[in-house]
Amino acid sequence: MSGKFEATARIDRPVEEVFAYLADGRHDPEFSPRVLRIERTPDAPTAVGTVFRSAVKDAGMKTAREFRITALEAPVRIRWAEVSKNKVTAREGGYDLEALPGGGTRVRVHNVLEGHGLGKLVVGPALFAARKDAPAFAGRIKAAAEAAIPPR
Fold first, then answer.
1. pLDDT, position 61
2. CA of 18: how far to CAs of 2, 36, 104, 121, in Å?
3. Residue 55 in contact with residue 64, Cβ under 8 Å?
4. Alpha-carbon span 48 to 68, nearest angstrom
5. Residue 132 — pLDDT band, cuts 50, 70, 90?
6. Mind listing the pLDDT tens digit for each residue in 75-126?
7. β-pair partners for 5
8. Beta strand 51-58 pairing with 35-41
9. Radius of gyration of the chain (CA)
10. Cα separation of 145 and 89, whole Å?
């Protein structure tokens, strides 16, 4: 079983700067409290093939996660796929960014969660929780990006 969740936020910063912020996945702990630590390999600007390795805490359990960047089209599209082997993974996900009049950016974040083995039994509740949190998650992305990127 698999399913998708998504959310949208308006960030009051230019699309190029929001793209740069989100493309550097090392910012994820700033808006995702489940991410305990994260590193980028190689330690170079994010490109297709870059891997982000993280330790996350979900439902009280710590797991190791690896995401590979599969598409990067500045300043409008970032895609990733989880390559780690966990019970529930993000088979695919990404950000879609759109420049708005007045210099703001609309960001849509989305993930497709998939259960593996016993994870097929918990992917439903994981999707329910992700969908329930999606608006707040988008709000955390907005707040973190606006705090990190100085206004013009």
1. 85
2. 29, 22, 9, 36
3. yes
4. 8
5. very high
6. 999 999 999 999 999 999 999 999 999 999 999 999 999 999 998 998 999 9
7. 111
8. antiparallel
9. 15
10. 25
Q: Which residue has the tokens 């305990």?
A: 36
Pairwise CA distance, residues 100 & 113, whole Å? 29
Give the list of residues 6+ apart from residue 132 with CB closer than 8 angstroms, or none: none
Those residues with Cβ within 8 angstroms of residue 135's Cβ, 6 or more apart along the chain or in another chain? 7
Beta bridge partners of 35: 56
Give the residue ranges of DSSP H helices in the chain: 15-23, 119-148
**Does residue 78 contact residue 94 with C-beta atoms inside 8 Å?**
yes
Which amino acid belongs to residue 70? T
Residue (of 2, 79, 65, 71) closest to 32 by Cα position: 65
pTM of the model: 0.95
